[in-house]
């Protein structure tokens, strides 16, 4: 991801919400790389939901910086999963960590499904992109 001029605040570094956009984009790219069609998921009555996101800033991003984002999906026994992401400048400098808690919503019952990993695996053609 490249830092764009309109990503900047009045101090000349990237605004906080842009880190969230970068993290969201990277997560969706993993879903796409896994071969999951969000249209198919929605047609089956499911939709991903974000329940919590935390950003820990380490270094500022400035104009011209490019960011490499690593994304790790972590599944447990319950109805939620975690995503841990690190953002690095191309020189390896850690600039931010983003941690998210998410679930998969049954759009009929309006409740989170149990074992979201099983549902993701069912729709994924390349589940390894989602840590499955």
Question: Your description of this structure?
Answer:
The chain is of the alpha+beta class and 132 residues long. The chain has a single domain (5-130), classed as Thiol Ester Dehydrase, Chain A (Roll), CATH 3.10.129.10. 24% of the residues lie in helices and 35% in strands. It is built from three helices and five strands; from the N terminus they run ααβββββα. Strands 1, 2, 3, 4 and 5 form a five-stranded antiparallel sheet that branches. The longest helix has 18 residues, at 16-33. The mean pLDDT is 94.
Keywords:
132 residues; alpha+beta; Thiol Ester Dehydrase, Chain A; five-stranded antiparallel beta sheet; 3 helices; 24% helix
Short description:
This protein has 132 residues and is of the alpha+beta class. It contains three helices and five strands, in the order ααβββββα. The chain has a single domain (5-130), classed as Thiol Ester Dehydrase, Chain A (Roll).
